[in-house]
Amino acid sequence: MVVGFGYPVVWQFVTSFQEFGLAQQFGQPPVFTGLRNYVGVFTEGRALAVLARSIIFCLVNSSLIMVLGFGIAQVMRAVYGPVRVVLQVSMVLAWATPVITSVTIFRWLFDNRTGLVNWVLRQVGVSPPHGGAWLSSVGTFFVVATVVVTWMSVPFVALSLYSALTQVDTDCVDAARIDGAGSAQITRHIILPSIRPVLTIVVLLQLVWNLRVFAQIRLLQDAGAPVSQTDLLGNFIFDLGMGRNDFGGSAAVSVLVLVVTTILTAPYVRRMMRDDAP
Amino acid sequence: MTRDSLTRRTVTRRTTIRRDGTRRTMNRHSLTRQAGKIALSALGVLIALVWAFPVYWMLVSAVTPNARLRAVTPTFFPDHFTTRSFARLLGSGSSFWPALRMSLTVTSVAVVVVLVCAFFGALAVSRFQFRGRKGFILSVLFIQMLPAEGLFIAQYRLLANAGMLNRVGGIAILYAAAIIPFTVWMLRGFVAGVPAELEEAAMVDGLTRTQAFRRVTLPLLAPGLVASGVYAFLQAWNEFTIALVALPANSSNTLPLWLRGFMTASVARGVDWAQVMAASTLITVPVIILFLVVHHHMTAGVVSGAVKG
User: Fold this and answer.
1) Which has the closest alpha carbon to B110: B222, B255, B257, B236?
2) Which of A78, B196, B236, B295 could form a disulfide with B107 if both were Cys (CB 3.0 to 4.6 A apart)?
């Protein structure tokens, strides 16, 4: 752990304050440049656009995933045994599918010539956007990305929340119902507080994971999307570093991502540490 | 499961007395409940179909001739069953086998390293009170938050300096480092589930500390170890991004890289979706089977890691 993470993290932090380009790759000592990398990245304008896009993408996807996941967990609890098993198996199918395969399948589903989605849309009389070329335009690109990410992430949330829901004290729920509480009230005042620890950790993980979606975007871009307008933070860092050899700038953006993540997740982390207190 | 059915029975038998004192008899009440349950079950089946559909679509496309896939009307059922796509993928001189060997080696090395490290890590975190225990738990979370893409360059340089690029050892260490934090997290829930008193009781009965650990604690931890092992396996098997950086040479592709290369190569001349889907199937099916067997341990692990310890 120390070798795999410690060194890169420290290097990262130091480099973000240094001028580190191709010359340094060939052995010249890096020059300390203070905050210039940060300033450089931000005055370029592109970084801010990427940052805004990533945060929106993260929040939209996380909320979508949480709502669907919680809904499905509730459905799982309410249905007949066999239906529950079917539901769980299908969730596990989606969860187990490797990222690369999921993206590939969805590229096939959204294929502009013979993809199923376009066919269905034409069948019901809707002409698909951009003549069916979903991935070549920014707006529809993110629609597809959201579908892929949601499809992949909901199962984990649904199954975790379901196993938390089975721990909820049913006597308590029954008592509330006898006292005349509606199901909305029961959810809000009894169920949500009792699954709070699990809910916290799941929300936390979703925020963290969705802010740094990398592989999905990159693999979808392979299909010919306008790269500079569809990059999220992860891809931006990767492009800066691997593509343009601007390691200093890339490191600066990474530190920034860390800061954003910390800000987004701080309330949940604090709550979790409180719940966890021995 | 048993608990569920038990409560269901108590609920349906009870006569509800509302706050204003009116009594509702069970009949009408249970009728509406039944209707609701049926409606929800239908919804559940629908959700299941939606979620399983992409996987089904992959399987159907994999066994359908590519010419049919290019037709205007989609093929919904495997009524033109063929294994030609698979035969071509697995035939002589195919790049699948080297990639499979690479994936298997990397994955198994990573799993062994992860299990050993995570086991002792979890033991330390949940059995001993020490300064920095909380800090350790926080740092596990913190590592989850790091933008892995930012670390690539550092990791690349680390490997390049050590001459480990394109080597199994190099990438296996990176994988292990990426997976260990979360498995420690999972395992600590399982370790906390085995009371230390049990071990102590065995020691009172005359076992040494090591014996007590080996004969009492270890067997009880087995499910947790299996779950973490499977988790590590899946992560390493499915990993795409680190591999992209650490294995630049084509000769050392892992399966995900192989699939991507396969796909990109075929984009130029119109994607052969039948073959691509067959390739996806080859990567996915082992994982899905493994996952179906152990998934409830895994959610249990994540959840208990969150609340216990």
Assistant:
1) B236
2) B236
Asked if A92 reaches chain B (Cβ–Cβ under 8 Å), the answer is yes
Q: What is the ipTM of this complex?
A: 0.77
Domain interval for residue A241: 37-276
- Put simply, whether A169 touches B (Cβ < 8 Å) is no
For A179, phi then psi, to 5°, come to: -75, 0
Residue B161: CB partners within 8 Å, gap ≥ 6? none
CB contact under 8 A, B36 and A160: no
Smallest Cα–Cα separation from A193: which of A174, A165, A171? A165
pLDDT in tens, A213-241: 887 888 888 777 777 777 788 788 777 77
- Closest C-alpha among B213, B210, B207 to residue B191: B213
For residue B101, tell me if it sits in a domain: yes
Q: What is the pLDDT of residues B56-81, one digit of tens each?
A: 888 888 888 877 777 767 777 777 77
- What is the amino acid identity at position B290? L
CATH number for the domain including A62? Answer: 1.10.3720.10
Q: 3-state class of B253 per DSSP?
A: coil
Position B83 in a domain? no
Same domain? For B39 and B165 the reply is: no
The token duo for B126 is 């949940």
> Across-strand partners of B23?
B17
Q: Tell me, what's the pLDDT at A150?
A: 93
